[in-house]
Amino acid sequence: MPRREQLAPPLTDLHADALWDGVLATAEHAPSPDEGAARIGGAEIRDSVLEGIRLSSARADSLRLTDVVVRDCDLSGMVADGASFTRVRFVGCRLTGIVLSDARLTDVSFEDCHADMVNLRMARLQRVLLSATRCRQADLLEARVADLSTDGADLRGASFERATFAASDLRGAVLEDVRGASALRGAIISPEQVLAVGLALIGEAGIRVE
Q: Which domains are seen in the chain, by residue range?
């Protein structure tokens, strides 16, 4: 992760296909929400820290983040199909309804974030951490997940239909009312989670308990 003392304010605006390298960016450096949804598709940010930036409902297809800390930012409703995040920390961010379909997330952590209804359809997640993060009704349809760890994450109502999980540790996560629970084959859960996952498997199999 970049060191703050080595960073400088960006010299260019954040726009489509922009490049930010080694910057410390705050709300004043990003497009104002008053001007409508930002269009930053194809932008690349690396070795940087973003703080307090508001990009709700932005269009950010193919956004690339590498070695970036994203802190206290509002990215709710942002559409970033095909994004690529590598060694990224999201801390205290609002990510409700963010669309990351067909994205690649490698060595990414979400810490104390709100990410309800996050769309990760057909995404590839490798070495991802969900820590004290709400991901209720997350959609992981056909996602490929390897080495997912959860620590106090809320995945209530999440959909795992046709997803694949490998070497994933879901202990500490809330797994009530999840769909596609059979996709969790091979994942580790705790005894306290057996009832919620078991009920989900029973419902998926169409078994009625009377």
A: 4-204 (2.160.20.80)
pLDDT band at 134, cuts 50/70/90? very high
Which residue type, as a one-letter code, is found at position 176?
A: E
Instruction: Say whether pLDDT at 171 is over 80.
Output: yes
Which pTM was predicted? Answer: 0.93
Confidence of residue 5 (pLDDT cuts 50, 70, 90): confident
Given a cut of 90, whether residue 206 has pLDDT beyond it is no
Write down the residue that tokens 């994203």 correspond to. Answer: 70
